[in-house]
């Protein structure tokens, strides 16, 4: 899949999607089994390393491969059948685990490598899957770290001196022990061998994908009904557009039958065929809910639009989504499906953009106080509703944002949220003071306060734009500490104090929306704080008046000097 236009997506998400799609460019090549006297006379395989074809020492079939039963010899049948039964009871995830020891059994049969006419034994192993490729893999252990014990070197490093290699060589080099292709670079060998394989009809250049078709039907109630009907006369027909949407019935019974609850709803199942007018039955499976969430961002824009999935004028104004936030666990599900949907709609001419979400940010995971993932079995689950009931929603929100970088998450801390609650109480206290009580006339303290205010606004704006909520809150904490000091000294004028309070509330509003709304109203300002612009700043007013000059002699710090900043 093309990843252009996703420069602001995390690399790990793109890597996960790329691996899930699993695009591989290589060659389909078949091995001769005509000597076995079967109807099928060859075993097709796919390889991305046709340059290693002379290093093949065995073939491996998936235990579920259709030929396994036919090629297994009598003396190996019992062992093979036991292995097949064991493989069928193991999940694909476990079979592909990097930690699992590779196992396999010999079928007793051989195939012929057409490039050098050598007989190679045929094994079965559970690390080969029927759902990927052809279900058959050629074993080249010299260039596969998993099978190096069976190695025959056919690609050698440029600096190779002919001695035995101690581990599988996976890089580029020149071809050796490869017949007429000896001395070629492996890149040259790929092209030459591919040409010869195609010329002799033994295979062809091909592209393989790990990803498979999406089975969208589900035997459950919650989901969009699949809008198809079955008629004995007309066959399978889609529901007419004017009869959409097909709605879920309210009388469904939920029983542990393994069937969709819709099966038991006679009013839902029985309908009339719009083709012949005779009796028909509805499809009772519903769609995978990812079918809905893959394009929900479009429907949300115009949920009542009846002439299509989305109002095109509204979509043109608002799509694609500028910023999307969500968990990394959706990388190869929702985030991938949404991209497929939009690309299909683009190809159909229904949208004029090819990616649904231009910028992606993944939030981290909140752990228990024991720094472990929250789970009932560990007894470390924190119910946020309970905490909100005591501390308030704003305290919980600010604590979760202050706990660490937003994409890292962190452990829950009772002490930490208490600290945040105390700080919010200080903000409340500062915002409700009467500025008229101040009599500062504006001097160095006012200049320092104004500079700090503009620096804080600038920093907070930049931090929020980069999802650095923790440092944005930290900068506001520094400002509140400063405001408390100048209030004690009575060293700033009332107008400056009011400006500081107003901008502090505006900066804090996205993180503590309830408290800031209340304080905004109490101050006599118009509804609502959340309809105001983010405060601006002046770079000149934010500029430091002095900077620290570090004096070093022979690499050692000898002094630190406060030097005035020169402004042009």
From TrEMBL:
Domain Aminoacyl-tRNA synthetase class Ia: 211-401
Domain Methionyl/Valyl/Leucyl/Isoleucyl-tRNA synthetase anticodon-binding: 450-564
Catalytic activity: tRNA(Leu) + L-leucine + ATP = L-leucyl-tRNA(Leu) + AMP + diphosphate
Any one GO molecular function term: ATP binding
InterPro entries (UniProt xref): aa-tRNA-synth_Ia, Leu-tRNA-ligase, Leu_tRNA-synth_edit, M/V/L/I-tRNA-synth_anticd-bd, Rossmann-like_a/b/a_fold, tRNAsynth_Ia_anticodon-bd, Val/Leu/Ile-tRNA-synth_edit
Domain Leucyl-tRNA synthetase editing: 19-197
GO BP annotation list: leucyl-tRNA aminoacylation
Family matches, as Pfam families: Anticodon_1, tRNA-synt_1, tRNA-synt_1_2
Superkingdom, natural source: Eukaryota
The UniProt record lists the keyword Methyltransferase: no
Keywords of the record: Aminoacyl-tRNA synthetase, ATP-binding, Ligase, Nucleotide-binding, Protein biosynthesis
E.C. number(s) listed in UniProt: 6.1.1.4
Any single GO CC term annotated in Swiss-Prot or TrEMBL for this entry: cytosol
Family label: Belongs to the class-I aminoacyl-tRNA synthetase family.
Annotated protein name in UniProt: leucine--tRNA ligase
